[in-house]
Design a protein that fits this description.
Blueprint lengths: L2 E5 L3 H12 L3 E5 L3 H9 L3 E2 L3 H5 L4 E4 L4 H9 L13 E4 L5 H13 L3 E4 L2 E2 L1 H7 L2 E7 L1 H6 L1 H5 L2 E8 L3 H30 L3 H8 L7 H11 L9 H17 L5 H15 L11 H8 L1
Parallel strand pairs: 1-2, 1-4, 2-3, 4-5, 5-6, 8-9
Antiparallel strand pairs: 6-8, 7-8
Helix pairs in contact: 1-6, 9-11, 9-12, 9-13, 12-13
Length: 290
């Protein structure tokens, strides 16, 4: 049985821990707010009082935390992962973070005899619960191959993207695509309401044709039900879009759709809804209509 340390037991992390345990892994957990981890502790996860304790004598360590600064803290901070994980351990950062940080973790880990993968995910809380996440992986191919049993416990579309940081670059592309799809669903609903078309019937109809998307089938109906519970926090999506915008600017790429959707999410945050799910973007359309 592989021993796994898991750091970051939030909306998605809790379900990922459950799926690892269901697949026979022994999982030790640490998160800054212990109460968030209580449900998985009750189900068999082992609580650790620090990052250092959580990573000692582990075969693999998985992290999925909030922001790049949090990734830096858990990997490079005092009593962090890289100073306490054993040689031969594999560290897998599943946070969406900057590609340059992913490369730095890889280089620092390699210097210590530790293997490292960047493996951000897509699929939200639904994918995490169902074990159907898309997992985009960067790092050494042989390390990726050796971790297939871990990845298969959490996802179904598991793809090797290339060397260190390529998993994060793929996630940037994912978020760019997602931004346009999400805004498109909001605009379709806004148009339907303005013309007297029944929005639910409209989604039922176009959801089987060329306009079909995950955003339509999932978040579109949540918008109609005014269900803004976070499968993925809007504030975290703002972070992702800013990272993608920065990477694009470094390469002198024009991203007008990304820029516009980011501006709308910043408005949503200013309205006080940053902790709502991304489907809350419809509130901006409603606000701007007034």
């Amino acid at each position: 049985m592989k021993q796994i340390g898991f750091i970051g037991v939030g909306v998605m992390g809790s379900s990922m821990v459950r799926n690892l345990m269901k697949n026979g892994f022994s999982v030790s957990v640490y998160t800054r707010t212990k109460s968030k981890a209580e449900p998985v502790i009750a189900e068999g996860a082992v609580w650790c009082d620090s990052v250092a304790e959580c990573v000692k004598e582990k075969d693999a360590v998985i992290t999925i935390v909030g922001y790049p600064k949090d990734v830096e803290e858990v990997y490079f901070g005092e009593a962090g992962i890289l100073d306490n994980a054993p040689k031969g351990c594999t560290v897998i950062d599943m946070t969406t973070t900057s590609p340059s940080l992913a490369k730095r973790i890889y280089e620092e880990a390699s210097a210590r005899g530790i293997k490292a993968l960047d493996a951000p995910v897509s699929g939200g809380d639904t994918g995490a619960k169902n074990g159907t996440l898309a997992i985009m992986v960067g790092g050494d191919k042989e390390v990726f191959d050796a971790c297939q049993d871990i990845f298969r416990a959490m996802g179904t579309n598991i793809v090797y993207e290339g060397p260190a940081s390529m998993g994060q670059h793929c996630k940037m592309a994912n978020q760019i695509c997602l931004s346009g799809a999400l805004a498109g669903v909001c605009e379709a609903i806004s148009y339907a309401r303005a013309t007297g078309l029944d929005p639910a019937t409209m989604l039922d109809t176009i959801g089987t044709g060329a306009a079909a998307s995950w955003q339509l089938s999932n978040n579109g109906y949540k918008m109609l039900q005014q269900d803004y519970a976070p499968g993925f926090y809007s504030t975290h999506f703002i972070k992702d879009m800013k990272l993608a915008e920065g990477e694009a600017q470094e390469r002198q790429l024009s991203m007008p759709v990304l820029r516009q959707v980011l501006s709308m999410f910043l408005q949503l945050d200013e309205m006080g809804f940053g902790l709502d799910g991304t489907q809350a973007l419809i509130k901006v359309y409603e606000e701007n209509k007034q």
